[in-house]
Amino acid sequence: MRLLVLGAGQQGSACAYDLLKTTDHDVVLADRAIERVPAFLEPWIGDRLQMLLLDADDHTAVRSAMDGVAATMSALPYYYNLSMTEAAVDAGSHFCDLGGNTEIVLQQKELAGPAMEIGVSIVPDCGLAPGMVNILAAEGIRRLDRPREVYMKVGGLPQNPEPPLRYQVVYSLEGVLDYYTTRSWVLRDGEPRQMEALSECERLEFPEVGELEAFHTAGGLSLMAQTYAGHLERMEYKTLRYPGHARAMRTIRELGLLSTEPLDVKSCRVAPRDLFIAAAGPKLSKDPQENPDLVAMRVEVCGERNGREVTLSWDLVDRYDPATGITAMMRTTGFSLSITALLQASGQIESGAWTPDEVVPAGPYVEELEHRGILIQYSESSRGVAL
Q1: What proportion of the chain, given as a percentage, has pLDDT over 70?
Q2: What is the extent of the structural domain holding 311?
């Protein structure tokens, strides 16, 4: 079987590594800049791993790269996802991506008909959040007689936080700032609403990590607020950081430093966000060997089962792997993408266009994570008799 990974950045490289490590399939890793390959991929180059120079804007070349491919995984920026999906359907390849943009996901789902006709599946939003948290939340909803509330919290964090933000870049600073400036969807009283990013900050204790804060950011729910409108009372996604981060970022945002509208600065037109990324990016980017990361996740589903109030919880703490140099964010995001594609290619996901919560089987998915050392702790608690 031949598999294609689009994008040779951190997540795409981790995805390719997982495919090579856990299967005997041939893998093509495509990018417009493939001069530097992570050391953990080198053993497979020239054998089962083909490096392909590919510009995602060259639609003819992209379509050609998908010929004979069983499944395509996209770790490209989200704005490529629709065109990559269209090419994959045309080529007869299963397709999944890291998603993160609700409007594009809605457009991808419009391709459900053509995908069904040729027997392939399209599954956007297949990373950590959106992705893993949505699969677990949907599983919790299925396990309750009357689910009412869902809370998802995820954070990529430094193991050794440093001031002033107590944060380091674990994937893309530009992407993080998008989440800090875009309103997020939630369910309140059963109705979809939008919340300001960085709002409703709350504190919580996290095993093995300590005290963290959680606040609203965009993208993590995928389409679940719309899917479960009228069926659940409350649903929300929040990002986890060390205490004080949200307040600092709100100050930076309120000063206009995250705006994308250009300003005149000494006869130059400059977008404040571009300047912020240029100035702060190098200070927030750390060598993972010297400053290893971790990922913390909690998913809680509350409701009624057998006449009792029940809370179902999934907790995860994953850490940088010093043996491979693969970060926790790469493991939880890139491996989630590869697992989804393997489930598609093995026929465990039906044809059409779906978000992960609609179609990815939680049992096999969690088992595959465990085989990779990504261990999710499940627990249940109950109290009294439901009213």
Answers
A1: 99
A2: 132-329+374-383
